[in-house]
Structure formats: C-alpha cells, structure tokens
Amino acid sequence: MANKIIGMAIEVHKGLGPGLLESAYQECLFYKLQQAGLSTEKEKPMPLVFEGVKLDCGYRIDILVENKVVIELKSVEALNDVHLAQTLTYMKLGDYKLGLLINFNVTLLKHGIKRVINGTL
User: Fold this and answer.
1) Residues near 58 by beta carbon (within 8 Å), at least 6 away in sequence
2) Strands 98-103 and 69-74
3) pTM surpassing 0.85?
4) Is residue 75 helix, strand or coil?
5) Are 44 and 60 in contact (CB under 8 A)?
6) Is 92 exposed, middle or buried (0-12, 13-18, 19+ CB in 10 A)?
C-alpha cells in the first residue's frame, strides 16, 4: 500500500511542482487517494491519553489511509528530526505500524520521502 500512496504523491508533485503550501498538497493527495478507492481521513484528531484520560492537545494526522498508514505532509526546505518525531508521535498514539513523512518542497519527490516502520526509519 505504501508504494501505491507514494506513486500518487509523485503524481501530485509532478502536477503541482515544489513551492506551494502544505495544504495544497494535502488536498490533492487526499483527492487522489479517495479516487483510488482507499479509505482516507484528513486531519484526523489524535487524543493524548494521560493518567487514563483522553485529552485533546490539538494533534492531527494529516492523512490516515485505510486506518493503517499515517501520512505526514510537509512543504519545507528540509526535513529534520522534529518532523520525524511528529510522525512517530502519531504512530505511537494511534498504534499504527507504518508512516510516510513526505516533503513536497523538493525538486524530485523521492528525495523528500521517509518511510517509518514500527517507529524506525
């Protein structure tokens, strides 16, 4: 499934190019995923459980595919450890095994993709 998602992200990047706001890429990728018949949720809230209480801390997964794959989108000069930590946090909070951290602000999208599996790159 990750390869299919990455393929669609590449199509979005080819169509739009780098330099747009993250929200533009999010809307286009969300559309492509839905058109492909995949179950998708956009801006899925992720509560934090602290001392047995669910707290809404404003965490939101950019796109969740098939209730399995966390997609965290960026449009930044370079991915850094904070972006990876954000993806890992969402994976941990939702007990998801696969995450894709995608930075659309690159010339060639394959250089902007990090696959995160079970909390590791």
Assistant:
1) none
2) parallel
3) yes
4) coil
5) yes
6) exposed
| Domain around 43 | 2-117
Two tokens, residue 94: 């939702």
Separation of alpha carbons 23 and 68, rounded Å: 22
Q: Among 27, 31, 62, 32, which Cα is nearest to 44's?
A: 62
Number of domains composing the chain: 1
The number of CA neighbours under 13 Å toward the Cβ of 47 is 8
φ, ψ at 87 (rounded to 5°) = -60, -45
Distance CA 120, CA 118 (A): 6
119 has pLDDT over 70: no
